[in-house]
Amino acid sequence: MGEWYAKQRVGDLPAKAAARWPDRLALVDGARRYSWTEFAAGVDRVARGLIALGVKPGEHVAVWMTNCAEFLFATYAVARVGAVFVPLNTRYRDADAAFALGQSDSVVLLGMDRSGPVDYAAMIATMMPGGRPVSDLPRLRRVAMLGDPVEGAITWQAMLDAGEAIADDHLAARAAAVDPDRPWIIVYTSGTTGSPKGALHGHICIRNVAERCLVLGHVFTDVHMSYLPLFHLYGLSEVALAACVSGAAQVLQDTFDAEAALRLIAAEKATVIHGFDTHFADLMAAKARTGADTSSLRLGTFPSGGDNAVPVARRAQTELCPTVSGFGMTETWAFITISRLRDSEEQRCGASGLPLADIDVEVVDPETGETCPPEVPGEIRVTSYMNTMGYYNRPDATAATFDERGRLKTGDTALVRADGHLRFLGRYKDMLKVGGENVSPAEVEAWIMRLEGVDQVAVVGMPDPRLAEVAAAFIVRTPGSTLTAADVDAHCRGRIASFKIPRRVDFVDSLPMTPSGKVQKFVLRQLLVES
């Protein structure tokens, strides 16, 4: 007897949607509108272009773009030709992007020339094949770009034109040969070791997304707002994949703007919104200013439960729409627990929901691994078909992420309430969450240590009313150094992602240490609170 769940391939999803809902609206991207038939055709054009560029099954293709139709076409096209999709954070700067490109062994980069004031072309120019030491980007062969390409790259249109020579039956054979048990995506997440790790996931994510669509009632008449960055699993899974699985439309914004989102909600009769407390707070503030019509909304997904998010979630129920909460992370996929619309408002706002089928979420004592009683905080550990297949080329980190029973150690702390709902409380790992973005203090510390005049540095989270927390740096200067906070900011600005840059820099004579030589970061956090 075979497996009960019929395996599917991510690259086949657009064609399946086109077969079921050919003429229904699939995507709105500014003035551009695509039916599912047109969307699937766009995916296949990019897929043929990738084959023409020489992308082979199993090779890795990086995509560095803001939210746009081409990003979505590339997402499914990479999977359709049996390659592995590597989405890059659009807030990366050249050092971040070069690391991810090199560590992932990407052979092709699909990028864009700019987004607003951000000059991606200038950064891509420093990463062109032949433009860096071979040891930095050993596999990168080709670059194709939206907009004006840098020297040595080709235009997006040139890639599509090259693909016209690829026969339909050739593409069909490539798509049919894709093994659904193999990885299709590498998603980078910052780790406590200081360097980002690429979590591998397979096509089984379709099951996870489809089950959530059933739980939340997503259907082909829905219209999802898509302003969450598509390089994140939240936006990619809960909007892009969910729309493709359910036949719903999605309305893109290249970056989040609350007033623009409200105009689109009214114009497109959007039914579903997504986001963290910062998104919902901004939407409610913009609605209060503009009086925007949000009556079409039926549902919002809003990971709540933390003390800073609950008040915002409560307001959203009456000012925007009912919301459901959930818990997930890059290594476990987007939502592995979720609340239901039938749950009480308190449950949907004050907790993180219940596990989905075949996903075992335990709260344990991290020292013993034993399950904690209800209402007792511990570390979240997960046994699931959706757990990462491992970190790409990081067997050490992969081994450290799973315990002796095969459970994924999230490093997050939670409790199981008396009603069975998980309540996320914070992080055991030394990780910051800046407006929904994971930031590794060790990574930022390593970058600041490159600056002349820095002897020691410790980065901790500082409370922030809008972003929950931001980075703050405590620096011990080298003797005779006249280093300033402005120097630190200049060293980071434009080189690392903006959300990683410390918002506050304090210079101290020494860092508080434990007897074993570890920095006592709780002391530094207390100093921030008291100052």
What does this structure look like?
This protein is of the alpha/beta class. 32% of the residues lie in helices and 25% in strands. The chain contains 17 helices and 27 strands. Strands 4-3-5-6-7 form a five-stranded parallel β-sheet, sandwiched between helices. The chain has a four-stranded mixed β-sheet with strand order 2-1-11-10, with helices on both faces. It has a four-stranded antiparallel β-sheet with strand order 18-19-21-22, with no helix packed on it. Strand 12, helix 11 and strand 13 (299-301) form a beta-alpha-beta unit. Helix 10 crosses helix 11 (277-290). The relative contact order is 0.09. The model has no long low-confidence stretch (mean pLDDT 93).
How many β strands by DSSP? 27
Main sheet: strand order: 4-3-5-6-7
Radius of gyration: 23 Å
**What global shape is seen?**
globular
Percent of residues in helices = 25-40%
Mean pLDDT: 93
User: Low-confidence parts lasting 5 or more residues at pLDDT below 50?
Assistant: none
For the sheet with most strands, the description reads:
5 strands, parallel
Q: For this entry, what is the oligomeric state of its chains?
A: single chain
Alpha-carbon distance between the termini?
65 Å
H/I helix tally: 17
Q: Helix/strand-derived class?
A: alpha/beta
Fraction of residues in β-strands: 25-35%
Furnish the topology, listing elements before pairings:
Layout: H1 13-20, E1 25-29, E2 32-35, H2 36-52, E3 60-64, H3 69-80, E4 84-87, H4 94-103, E5 106-112, H5 120-125, E6 142-146, E7 154-155, H6 156-163, H7 168-176, E8 183-189, E9 197-202, H8 205-216, E10 223-226, H9 233-246, E11 249-252, H10 258-268, E12 272-274, H11 277-290, E13 299-301, H12 310-319, E14 323-324, E15 326-329, E16 333-338, H13 345-350, E17 354-355, E18 359-364, E19 378-384, E20 390-391, H14 395-401, E21 408-416, E22 422-427, E23 432-434, E24 437-439, H15 441-448, E25 454-464, E26 468-477, H16 485-492, E27 504-507, H17 521-530
Parallel strand pairs: 1-11, 3-4, 3-5, 5-6, 6-7, 10-11, 12-13, 13-14, 26-27
Antiparallel strand pairs: 1-2, 8-9, 9-20, 15-16, 16-17, 18-19, 19-21, 21-22, 23-24, 25-26
Helix pairs in contact: 1-2, 2-3, 2-6, 8-9, 10-11, 11-12
